[in-house]
Amino acid sequence: MKLSQSLSQTSKTVAHDADSVNAKLLTQAGFVKKEAAGVYSYLPFGRKVLAKIKQIVREEMNAVGGEEILMPALTPLENWKKTGRDKVDIAFHPTEKTVLGWSHEEIVTPLAKTRVKSYRDLPLCVYQIQTKFRNEPRAKSGLMRGREFLMKDMYSFHATKEDFEQYYERVKAAYFKVFERVGLKSFLVKAGGGEFTENISHEFQVLTEAGEDRLKICEKCGLGWNAEMEIAKCEKCGGELIEKKGAEVGNIFDLGTKYSDAFKLNFADEKGAQRKVLMGCYGIGVSRLVATIAETCHDEKGLIWPESVSPFQIHLIVLGDDKKVLTEAEKVYEELSTKTEVLFDNRDLPAGVKFADADLIGIPLRLVVSPKTLATDSVEIKKRSAETSELVSLKNLLAKTF
Ligand code: ATP
Ligand code: MG
Questions:
Q1: What pTM was computed for the model?
Q2: Which ranges of 64-125 does DSSP label H, i.e. alpha helix?
């Protein structure tokens, strides 16, 4: 993409209502635009980051046998009346008979009922990546807590407790993989079940001062607890607990039979007896991940994207207005673009501005083509995370695989 033609543009000024590092950096670097409290547009750069995160989530959910679906955001109120969650105050009601989905147990359970008749139909697991709506009283911290946000929600259906428990452990492992792949270290934290269930749930937390949750983390084994829980030493290894702040990037729940009771989701066992289906649900805050990555991967100059989720792999800068240099840079852009994603800063601006913007946008690798580098048939190459640059010959650069 040529920066001169992109809708995404950097800005020198910080929005006066940017209340967090992620809001400030993502807005200034042209990834998102705030439309209202807790409501954002994703500009081209931000949309690309989201797409990469979604793809990683998808791959890991498919790997544990999840099948992707897409349920409506506009859901019938009557379904919510069956579980008593029609009274939940974070729900938006666009009409008298509809609710904007803030979670989807009330839709997915009747959906599973159309498919599950016997023990042979179990287990079953479906997921979606979809916009959720919650009238959060504390919509703040940029993409951390939106009123409209992107979530991956997965639901599993089981015949036995053993089968559910085994599956829950598989999803746990898949979640650690997702967070590692997007460049984050996550901690498993025990918590209550909230609006979803009376059972214990597990949260996946990333340690950051920008998070809203207070945790007690075991220094020895990394297991954690919600700070509100009464616990003095690690239950698993007896290690000391230290208090930290965290951002909840995912949450997994044992739903038991709460929703199968409400919707009479039963199955016939081997002997033909009717039994209740056991359910689990598993959420990932896809857009909160964008915020969490921005909060944990930056320096005073700007963002530093992990390669796996960066909107581009290469930020190519051309310096000066020499025709020959511009033509050469254009050639480099064309050739590299056949192999990887390149952002080409072809704007007619001073070097200092272009370098500052490259640091702000935070693409992992910066290349510079200038009269000076071309004098030795080379290109300057610098990692966003490194202090120093080096010269690489044009020939070697173009022969490289990215
Ligand atoms: P929180 O305690 O942060 O409000 P939650 O317990 O309501 O989260 P779930 O309903 O389980 O969360 O949602 C699944 C995931 O979606 C959460 O782990 C979180 O990462 C993300 N999430 C929840 N609410 C929001 C929000 N308002 N904005 C962005 N992401 C959210
Ligand atoms: Mg919440």
A1: 0.96
A2: 77-83, 105-113
